[in-house]
Automatic annotation (TrEMBL):
This protein's name: CoA transferase
InterPro entries per record: CoA-transferase_III_domain (IPR050483), CoA-Trfase_fam_III (IPR003673), CoA-Trfase_III_dom3_sf (IPR044855), CoA-Trfase_III_dom_1_sf (IPR023606)
UniProt entry keywords in alphabetical sequence: Transferase
Signal sequence residues: none
A Pfam family of this chain: CoA_transf_3
SUPFAM superfamilies named in the record: CoA-transferase family III (CaiB/BaiF)
GO molecular function terms noted in the UniProt entry: CoA-transferase activity
Length: 409
């Protein structure tokens, strides 16, 4: 069996809900031993986010919900009460053999437990310690709580998402998924990998990483934010229209809709030919992309009328033959039945104690020498508590029973 890239790395994960767990799941997929610390009896806050719940082999609902399952595969769960001194002591013992500590508590919260970076650094100088918060460790809002939807508004994402002004239904719109959390998780994984490389390849030491959802949200706005910084102009909502090559938009067809991106002048000429209107390629207001961007609404209306004359499948066949970037507007049922998604194996199998045929989302990372081929199901609460305490800390059965009797685990 091929080795995985991070199989010698151990991560002690005290994060909850989405941003932190998504980041640690990326590391777990690549082979890191992620030990997820959860509150006894309650667990990660994501466990109480409600339906839909996993149904077991008999079709009965369980307490394992889809939200939690989405970001916790390939981890081990240890139920441990860090509010008690004995629980804190066990964390410090685990830190001795860990490479990374992740947490998303309020700023300064873990210091009162002696589980802050400086305290753990004194135990393990090589530790990489990553704190994930809404606003960062410093600044006027550092103590303020927040969730993804709040940051979608604060970072500017909602201001450039939704129906344009003057159109029916105009107004800022939240992106469906918790996208700021997910951007943050990607940054968390990248930052941790960079810190590990610095420590192990560059002869450096462990270090502290401060990741904020607000920072990640603004960074993810990329060219939209740069438009403002470059020109001083505040970008506006454009619905499904693109911001570069035109026409780029969702176009209604007679039985649905399709998405098209005409990224350059060559593609635009091919698009005009494919839809049977070659004269549009030399139209005085459309013959260069600069002109098409300047007349974006007009050209969108022209192509709206064209695509409305036939079905989505008809147009996608025409556009595909002409090499025009285009595709259907799939719902999730259609996504997992999409031929390319099926070929890429985006649905993976991770046998769960309650459901042997549990499906999960495959990691998008494809390595030639260290492929990710096997997935372990997201753990049930405390599923690995005894295993970790016995194997990693050498506690015997009596000692573990004693911890359980005092509510430590």
């Amino acid at each position: 069996m091929s080795r995985l890239p991070l199989e010698k790395i151990r991560v002690l994960d005290l994060t909850r809900v989405l941003a932190g767990p998504f980041g640690s799941q990326i590391l777990a997929d690549m082979g890191a031993d992620v030990i997820k610390i959860e509150r006894p009896g309650a667990g990660d806050d994501a466990r109480i986010f409600g339906e839909p719940y996993l149904r077991n082999a008999d079709g009965e609902a369980t307490r394992e919900n889809a939200f939690y399952l989405s970001v916790n595969r390939n981890k081990r769960s240890v139920a441990l009460n860090i509010a008690k001194p004995e629980g804190q002591a066990l964390i410090r013992e685990l830190v001795k053999s860990s490479d990374v500590v992740m947490e998303n508590y309020k700023v300064g919260d873990l210091k009162r437990y002696g589980l802050d970076y400086e305290s753990l650094k004194s135990i393990n100088p090589g530790i990489v310690y990553c704190s994930v918060t809404g606003y960062g460790q410093t600044g006027p809002l550092a103590a303020k709580p927040g969730y993804d939807a709040v940051f979608q508004g604060e970072c500017g994402l909602m201001s450039v998402t939704g129906v344009p002004e003057g159109k029916p239904g105009a107004g800022p719109m939240k992106v469906g998924p918790s996208i700021i959390d997910l951007f943050t998780g990607l940054n968390v994984a990248n930052a941790i990998l960079a810190a590990l490389y610095h420590r192990d390849a560059n002869g450096g030491e462990g270090q502290y990483i401060d990741i904020a959802l607000l920072d990640c949200g603004v960074s993810a706005l990329s060219h939209y934010a740069q438009i403002y910084l470059t020109s001083g102009e505040v970008p506006v909502r454009r619905g499904t229209q693109g911001n570069g090559g035109m026409p780029t938009s969702m176009f209604p067809c007679s039985d649905g809709a399709i998405m098209i991106t005409s990224g350059n002048d060559k593609q635009y000429v091919a698009l005009c030919d494919a839809v049977g209107h070659p004269e549009l390629a030399t139209h005085p207001r459309f013959h260069t992309n600069v002109l098409r961007v300047a007349h974006r609404d007009e050209i969108t209306e022209v192509f709206n009328a064209i695509f409305a004359t036939n079905t989505a499948d008809y147009w996608l066949e025409k556009l595909g033959a002409a090499g025009i970037p285009s595709g259907p507007i799939n719902d999730l049922e259609q996504v997992f039945a999409y031929p390319q998604a099926m070929h890429r194996g985006l649905r993976a199998r991770a046998p769960h104690p309650l459901k042997p045929d549990l499906d999960v989302i495959r990691s998008p990372l494809n390595f030639s020498e260290t492929p990710i081929t096997d997935y372990r199901a997201p753990p049930m609460l405390g599923e690995h508590t005894r295993e970790v305490l016995a194997k990693e800390l050498g506690l015997d059965e009596a000692a573990i029973d004693g911890l359980a009797s005092y509510g430590i685990i």
